[in-house]
Amino acid sequence: MAAPISKEEATMAGEEEATAAAESTGRRRRSGVEVLVSQDTSPSPPQCPHGPTLLFVKVSQGKEEARRFYACSACRDRKDCNFFQWEDEKLSEARLAARETHNRRCQPPLSHMQYVKRYWKFIELPLSQRKFCQTCQQLLLPDDGGKHFDHQVLCDISIAQLRRPSQLLYPLENKKTNAQYLFTNRSCQFLLDLICTLGFRKVLCVGTPRYSQFYMEDNFCHYNMFNHHFFNGKAAFETCRKFLQEDKDVGLILVADPPFGGLVEPLAVTFRKFMDMWRETQSPDNNSKELPLFWIFPYFFESRILQFFPSFSMLDYQVDYDNHTLYKHGKTGRKQSPVRIFTNIPPNKIILPIEEGYRFCTMCQRYVSLENQHCEICNSCTSKDGRRWKHCLLCKKCVKPSWIHCSICNYCALPNHSCAGAKDGCFICGEADHKRTTCSNFSAPKRANKAVRKQKPKKRNKMKMETTKGQSMNHATVRRKKKKKRRGHQYPCS
Hints:
The chain has 494 residues and is an alpha+beta fold. It is built from twelve helices and 25 strands. β17 and β18 (366-369) form a beta hairpin. α1 (7-13) crosses α2.
């Protein structure tokens, strides 16, 4: 698949633009990088500080190039994890040893076992000595005081606070690696009530980082959901397996809130592995059953998720977050959160709160948002974003109210979208088998001048200042030239 759309990208580009980008991936074969996921674990991939890497391949117009490479499973930015290795590359023993040393240095300062020992000592302290360093995000013991004397420290940490670590920990703000958005009380209470109403008594939460110092080894594992890697090895894996397989008569559900910039394919493979582990101890009569799952993700990934889990459906419930400016609950327009719940539980068993604007559709036999009106042609409540959608007779489906049908692309899209093929291939000659910089019509002097400009940025900036000094520019004229013209080949839907 192409590069993923993250929370910050969806916020910057806008919800509709993000949806269009996600949906266009399925329509057009564009250049990008694909991840090659497989249930097969041999040969073992090389490891970075985040565990086993993933295998990627660069594609151009849908055709794979010959050479594939390994990269980090968790970080999309090479600045956060610069691991890179060609699939067929042979490394020397010295480089392998250096990599192993680097991976060890990047691990947390304390093991989970050490965190547990510190926790037991911490709760034995009197209330006046229980302190938490907000600067280091760490529970403090009496011997640690000298290292944190100039830090911001909370005192009198109660047992109730320890049971809700999200209220102590600051959410990480690196949006490409460890972005942590916390559910509002409204969404937390809804999920909790829903889980209890459905009869589940055990919950496997996937996506609860930095809790090592608050939970014991039998109910928390340091884990990477993109490569199904347990950092504490076989012991942690067996802890998870035991949790999934014991107490078969007690209802269990998996709840996952992955980073929205994460690739759907490796996440789907991970969830399938959990399902397989759960099914190992099920009776032959239950072989067709699946581990119940709530996958919390933006609605514009629906088609990709359903490719891996056809039995899943998307609920209309809008999941919102406390510390995100746009992913919050609203009743109208763009204020609505695009985050939904994907589940293999039949939608007619899930009751959405009427007081928050949800209603029951007797024809669909499920709860939907108030503006999600039933389309008689599609025979379904078709809206995904909470607004009322309109039916396009040419596309033979309902689309967003702001979209129009493009006769060139032959599907509905935003009025100012780029038509099919506009961004692919060469911008000079129009051919699809190369890019502008490798085009034969792209003159060598231009390449040379570009190289010179890169080598002498300071001189270029100085010359730019000298040549622009004293010049008068009509900014209004420039804006008029840049203003996009309306397309004559587009027309509204029926």
